[in-house]
Amino acid sequence: MVVVGVQAGSAGAAPDRAAGATALPLNASQRATAIKEAQAGAASVAAEIKLGGKEKLVVRDVIKDADGTVHTRYERTYDGLPVLGGDLVTHARKDGSLKGVSRATDAKISVASTTAAATAKSGARKVIWAATGKPALAYENVVKGTRADGTPSERHVITDATSGKELYSYEAIDTGSGTSQYSGTVTLGTTASGSGYNLTDGGRGGHATYDLNGGTTGTGTLFTDADDIWGNGLATDRQTAAADAHYGAAMTWDFYKNELGRNGIAGDGKAAYSRVHYGNAYVNAFWDDSCFCMTYGDGSGNLKPLTSLDVAGHEMSHGLTAATAGLKYSRESGGLNEATSDMFGTAVEFYANNSSDSGDYLIGEKIDIRGNGTPLRYMDKPSKDGASADYWSKTVGRLDVHYSSGPANHFFYLLSEGSGAKTVNGVSYNSPTSNGSTVTGIGRAKAVQIWYKALTTYMTSSTGYAAARVATLQAATDLYGAGSAEYSAVATAWSGINVN
Ligand SMILES: [Ca+2]
Ligand SMILES: [Ca+2]
Ligand SMILES: [Zn+2]
Fold this sequence. Notes:
Bound molecules: calcium ion, zinc ion
CATH topology of the domain at 324-496: Neutral Protease, domain 2
Distance between the termini: 31 Å
CATH architecture of the domain at 324-496: Orthogonal Bundle
Number of helices: 11
Number of strands: 22
């Protein structure tokens, strides 16, 4: 646990420094005030960082470190139009002077005209597309539908508003994978109502869990119970999946709060909600940012709900990424988005310290989605899944995001546990490096802090592998110092996956 202002362990430079660069937890009203104040000063910041006259900054988040450093995340507009891929973060010292800027793009935003020549699809919005290529006037069209396996789809298609040509497209609804009901007997946050109880966790922002009962839309029915004892460990009891989902949401909330100093998924103290029993024999789980909600299928034969701890933590961490770096869900940034969810899903599993599902560097080891007992993904050597990359290469961004996440997951494992053979909680790992080097781990807790700080203060929507290396080294410098063992370990771990 990181407690701001309290020096942990023995006296020394490292703990002081870590405490100084640690984000202060802000409650909802402090955060709202900080955002309002930053917005009032946004025009002068825009001038200071030399944006064009047609550009304005819109504050999305403010993070204040204990040492007074303030990281302000902005979206940009151009002539009143949203600039997609124009996000940036300013880093200001305690005295207000500018220390640096992390930008999603270095391109100058300028288009000949904001009057479109091409015809828009109905419902499309006019934007400036700055995420790839030369910034251009564009339309963003959102196509909603359903994929073959029943997963909802929300495809964003960007077309050039002058030529009508497609510039880019991406899928906004993330899908992951799941687990069965294996967290044993757990304590659930519930609310008394009438003569019984419902599954609303008042201690964690009011996170509620609903029964979709085979439906695929809406919120279904809030779970209620007469005696506040939920489920029986078997999938045949409708409450069992609800207990797992509700517990997963609680552990994720607690991990964010106690390990990251974060107040909920979006940092604003507001709860998401969970929906279980989605569709029929649906073998997936997904986070949807538009409802700010988490949904689980019942798995093969409706007997293996995808409600394990690592899956819950993984999916909800997509909400965290969306609220912070906003890593685009495609190519290298998409792989880093997926890897972030694997890292934090794993961290949630370790945090819960539940003997029925002890912490490991495997993803979805409880699901048996493959039917042969093997996990979905391996962080020590991602290629063990038969599809993920172990190391970065120029072509890694062409892989599906669940496989281009491999090198970053591998980086996280190396940074946490080091290279070579090791057994953790009874699970054996053997992590190689691309250059044959030996990496000495700094422990998962520090690896999590470094990744979280990089994600929330230095990464932007366009961050790829090379920029992730820079961002994490910067985070390690802030937290532990430029000459620290932690900084060296970050560098060595990246080199071990061929990001130099
Ligand atoms: Ca486990
Ligand atoms: Ca796991
Ligand atoms: Zn995912």
